[in-house]
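Hi R.,

Here's the input for the flavin mononucleotide complex you asked about:
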Amino acid sequence: MTTSIPAAAPPHRPLRDMTTEEIVGTGRPHRLTYHDGTSRTVLVTDLETSFPTGELIVSQTDTDGVITMCNEAFVLMSGWSRAELLGSPHAILRHPDMPRAAFADLWATVGSGRRWSGYVKNLRRDGGFYWVYATVIPKIRAGVILGHTSVRRQPSRRRVEAAEALYATMRSEENDASRVQP
Amino acid sequence: MRYRFAISPDVHARDLPTWFVLNTRLQRALGRPGRATVHDDFGALHRACAAGEVDLVYANAADTVELVREHGFLPVVRPREVADEAVVVVSATGPVTELDDVPDRLTVAATDAPDVERICRILLEPADLDAGAIDLTVLRNYVLVAKAVITGQVEAGFFLRRAHDNLSATTRGMLRPLISSRIHVVSHCLLLAPGLAELREPLRDFLHTLSRDPAEQSTLAELGAPHGWQPANEDDVEFMVDLMDALKQ
Ligand SMILES: Cc1cc2nc3c(=O)[nH]c(=O)nc-3n(C[C@H](O)[C@H](O)[C@H](O)COP(=O)(O)O)c2cc1C
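And here is the predicted structure with flavin mononucleotide in place:
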């Protein structure tokens, strides 16, 4: 006998493939698979947008990482409109150069109620990228984790170069590991 | 019961009389006696708060984190359309003209205002200066900080934007703003001790009436709220608290 379980509402707006019309320059295609098993094709270029000096890029998510709030600097730097961002998973910014382990560490840390900080390369809507130093803290109200807040600031160039090298190594190890598993 | 009102150490001496007059009017509006105290510096204010000797305080964002989270203080009002921004300054005639010129280590003068220090340290991170690379000298007021930078005693100074704007034109001319924050959402907040929660609404009513009275324009400006006050709601303040918390190095 089977019990029918009502289909759960989709947790968020699904991420769609990027198209050549949306991006600036010629993008290299990458297929990204997200933690929930969904996937999409992103197009990436080498165009960097520099961090707006003196500003902070701020966003909040629910406990699943779906964006619930973002500031103007977030909108400008990501290239997406506010309407497109709200309700989308934060992985809308995931860049293929970022190792999975970095985000696994982020989620394990904030899930246990602690803050996480790290250097993150983010993907823009136009295929370009920007580096940030991000701090994610759980949004705890009356003892309950209601979501998460991320505050990003301008990273130093030297730290970005170190993160770039580290992430490249981590990614090649992740790729090797995924090759041995059929 | 007499309430104890702590006037923030970052209030300009010129504006202190206005704060005392505000307290006189508060006593009338609340129908109870209260005493206003000026604390010489943030160290003294923090000691008074820790000893439970403060009922009402116009707190900067960094202290708001502590007072709301650790001591259960209640947000009352915050200034409308006024944000606390910070600026790192250097000598106008010195070798540093942009962030890229900043050396590996930096000597800095500042007051003990914790919000300003936190923001200015963040502003220097892109120059690869982390906590250990800054030698900080704490001075009693912003005039002394300006003097230390101008005379070359230190390489840079940390200022609350408003305090920098309040320096004389001559002094400002001898300083070069190196980098300024544009955070927009951080501000002071009037906080009330949890034991006096019943005063929250009367306080809001009084300050709201004051905010709407055109005859109070200059008073409001002297209190640092030229556009009046708005009720500080719990969500906004909790958000600001999380944000300041995230900026701790
Ligand atoms: C508050 C918050 C902010 C986040 N910010 C980013 C971000 O800026 N860029 C990013 O790629 N991932 C960010 N993440 C992580 C994503 O949710 C996601 O884990 C990551 O992009 C990897 O995608 P995946 O977990 O679906 O595989 C953030 C998560 C939280 C909770």
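One thing worth noting: The longest helix of chain B spans residues 16-30.

Cheers,
M.
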